[in-house]
Amino acid sequence: MSISTSRTHSAATSATRSQRIVAAVGAAVLGALLVYFAGFSHIAAVHNAAHDTRHSSAFPCH
Amino acid sequence: MIKRIAQTAGFTGLLGALLLTLLQSFWVAPLILQAETYEKPAASEVHEHEHDAGSMAGHSHDDEAWEPEDGWQRVLSTTGGNLVVAVGFALMLAGLYTLRAPTRTSQGLLWGLAGYAVFCLAPTLGLPPELPGTAAADLLQRQLWWVTTAASTAVAIALLVFGKHWALKVLGVAIVLVPHIFGAPQPLVHSSLAPQELEAQFKIASQLTNFAFWLALGVISAWLFRRKPEAQYSA
Question: How far apart are CA B225 and CA B218, in angstroms?
Fold first, then answer.
C-alpha cells in the first residue's frame, strides 16, 4: 500500500518535473527566436528598424 | 505555469525595454548618430577604396529597403526592437525560473549578472561594441561566433553554479575558454570612420547601458515571478 502510494507520488512529481522542463525549454527557444529576429535577422527592413538596438546591445551588425 | 512565464516575461520585457530606450537615448543613441555623420558623406569613397581589401565586406545598406526616418520614427522603431529583444531575454529568464525559482527577489541580481556575462560581456571580449562605419569580418561568421560564445558561457555558468562535482566546475571553466582560444573573426584591416575617442566612449556607454539593463531585467523578473504563488496562476 505504502509502496504504491510512493510510486504514484514519484510519478506525479516526475510528470511535473518533465512539464517544467518542457515549459522552460519552450520559453527559452521562443525567447531565442525573438532575440534572433530583432538582433540577427538578415532581412534588410528588420535590420534597419532594429539598427540602433543591435549596435547598442553589441550584436554583430552590418 | 505557462501563464506565469508569459506574464513574467511580458511585463519584465515591457519595463526592461522602456528602461533600455531611456538609457540609450541619453548616451548610446547620440553617439550612434554622431558616428553616422562620419559614415554618410564618406560612404561612397570608402566603398570604392576598401571593398578590395574585404575589410568592409558585408557593409551595405540596401537602398530599396524601408528605413525609419531620423526622429520619432527611429526612436519608435528602436523601442520596438528593444521590446522584442527584452521580451526574448525575459522569456529565457522566466523559463529558467520554473526550474530554479528564485527564493528572494535579490537573487534576480545574480540572474541578471549571468545574463550580462552571457549575452554582453563574453561576446564583447572578442567582438567589441561597434559604431556604424567600423570595419569588421564577415557578418555571418561574427554572428556564429557570437552565438557560440553566448551558448558556451551559459553552459559554463550553469556548470560552475549548479555543478556539484569539482570535475563539472573544471569542465565549465574549459568550456568558457574555448571560443576565446579559437578567437573571434577579425577584419583584415582594422579601421573606423568615427574618431577613436568616439569609439572608446561608445564601448563604455554600451557596456554600462547593457549592465544596467540586465540587472533591472533580473530584479524585475524575479520580483514578478515571485509576486504570486504558482497556484494562483491556474485559476
Answer: 10
DSSP B211: H
End-to-end CA distance of chain A: 66
- Cell triple for residue B210? 547593457
A–B interface: beta-carbon pairs under 8 A: 144
In B, minimum Cα distance to A21 occurs at B99
Nearest Cα of chain A lies from the Cα of B190 at a distance, in angstroms, of 15
Given a cut of 80, is residue B225 above it in pLDDT? yes
CA B18 – CA A61 distance, rounded (Å): 22
Least confident of A15-19, A48-52, B81-85, B141-145: A15-19
Q: Please provide the average confidence, as pLDDT, over all residues in chain B.
A: 89
Q: Which residues of A touch B (CB under 8 A)?
A: 19-21, 23-28, 30-35, 37-40, 42, 44-45, 47-62
ipTM of the prediction greater than 0.95, yes or no: no
Q: Do the chains contact at B90 and A31, CB–CB below 8 Å?
A: yes
